[in-house]
Amino acid sequence: MSYHEIINTILTHRNRILKVTFLSTILLFLILFLIYPVSFESPATILPPEQETPGSLGSLLKGQDFSSLLTGGLSNANSQLYVEILKSRSASEYVVRKHNLVEYFDADNLQEAAGELSDRLNININKEGIITISVEVKTTLLPKFIDNEDSVKNFSAELTNSFIQALDKINREKLTSRAKKAREYIETELIKTRLALDSVEVALMTFQERNKTVALPEQVSAAIDAAAQIKGEIMKTEMEIGLMKSNLKEDSRELQLLNKKLEQL
């Protein structure tokens, strides 16, 4: 069939072709609108953690947030850490248990349901560190006749909120564990410091007895006070380095600054 014959056939049966096309379009629309499952998402926004200065010994002793030790107080890095927690198997399993999703997904076990839930989890993070999270929930076939769309939307919102609760729970557990390690480290260092101070006190008493002195000359006393301040700053910096080494890499900017400060002291 030549090109002209094809054009002639189309023009001859154009009314029939238009009718079939129109009816097919209407039928496809009805199938998609009335029969095909519909997906719903209820996005939630998580603002980035407030930018803080790198974890210092003072903040540790006051019980402040230890997450800054992981990231050096960079909000974008904290946001990225939050994203990894949200994507973790622990977060998915928390949501599965809370909503009994093993039965909902008709899964064989908790791990399979958690995997299915992870596939439906959508997470985005922008350059400002703002996280957007949502969980896709689909209706069954014939959603207009079987499923209540409002209940599906609410279920999507509940799953999204449960992921945020899982993030908060896991993050608190990590901070508590890190705080415990920090306290144990500080207690050990304080014992060492106390023993060192006792040794200095004994040495001072021995010096006074040997030289028959009760009070040290003013210049000597001032030099000792200055040396004690420097020594105290050195010990404080060493403790900060020890605490941060367990959470930061050796080439991190914070550790390099502290090591430089220690060298100057």
CATH class of the largest domain: Alpha Beta
Shape: elongated
| CATH architecture name of the largest domain | 2-Layer Sandwich
* Element string (H = helix, E = strand): HHEEHHHHHHEEEHHH
Number of domains: 3
Rg: 33 Å
- The DSSP helix count reads 11
Biggest sheet: strand arrangement: 2-4-3
Share of residues in helices? 55-70%
Summarize the helices and strands and which ones pair or pack.
Blueprint: H1 3-12, H2 14-35, E1 39-40, E2 44-46, H3 57-61, H4 67-71, H5 75-87, H6 89-99, H7 101-104, H8 110-120, E3 121-125, E4 131-135, E5 137-138, H9 149-211, H10 218-245, H11 253-264
Antiparallel strand pairs: 1-5, 2-4, 3-4
Would you kindly provide a written description of the structure presented here, covering whatever features stand out?
This protein is mostly helical and 265 residues long. 69% of the residues lie in helices and 6% in strands. It has three domains: 3-33; 37-178, 2-Layer Sandwich (Bacterial polysaccharide co-polymerase-like); 180-264, no CATH class. It has helices spanning 3-12, 14-35, 57-61, 67-71, 75-87, 89-99, 101-104, 110-120, 149-211, 218-245, 253-264; strands at 39-40, 44-46, 121-125, 131-135, 137-138. It has a three-stranded antiparallel β-sheet. The relative contact order is 0.11. Mean pLDDT is 76; it is low at 52-74.
Short précis:
This protein is mainly alpha-helical and 265 residues long.
